Amino acid sequence: FDETRMRATKKLLQAHSVAPYVLGSYLRLGATKDDGIELADTLHIARWLRTPLVRVWASDVGSAEASEEVWRAVVDDGRNAADRAAKLDLTLVVEMHAGTVADTAEGAVRLMQEVGRDNFRLNYQVSAHDDGQSPEERLQATLPWVSHVHAQNYETLAGQPADPVVRAPLASGVVKYEPLVSMLKDAGYRGCLAVEFAHDEQKGREEALTADAAFLRSICG
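The chain above was modelled as a monomer; its predicted structure follows.
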């Protein structure tokens, strides 16, 4: 936590009339390697920015490789972090990402059930590789815990998590977002759908982000 940077950040946000919805932290619960990111600093930053949500990560090991010791560390850290966050009226959202124990719907649900805290939720996102489960099945299984959504799309799904992927516009990639949005609506979801990445990170970045945001607005009604 750096108060000088926080004051400058708040000033910049206010100048552009931006109210941040989620802090995209890189705090890893139950990490097997120390990366120097502290829970106290993360929660302090979130309070300064007045974000209701804090994105966190579930260790640095995939669910298929994680030992029971890793699982226990993630669950213990998750409970502790959620309890401390609750005192600040913050909700933690675990990103469903490769290389974490929340990489699959099964792993994410197990984590939610074992931590068992109302303010310990999920940041849903589609898988970038073909894991045998459709995006709809992945969402249906985790829907009761979803409080934030990262929207991203791909030209094709990778065969393995480590294989390279090529991003595509949200409207034209292999993932169809219309049924996902319908499922969220039917479940009474009131959170955000965030355009996490621009499919063109070069000169067309602004145009790509604008187009993706417009597409999401059009299907959200």
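Strands lie at 22-29, 53-58, 91-95, 120-125, 146-151, 193-195.
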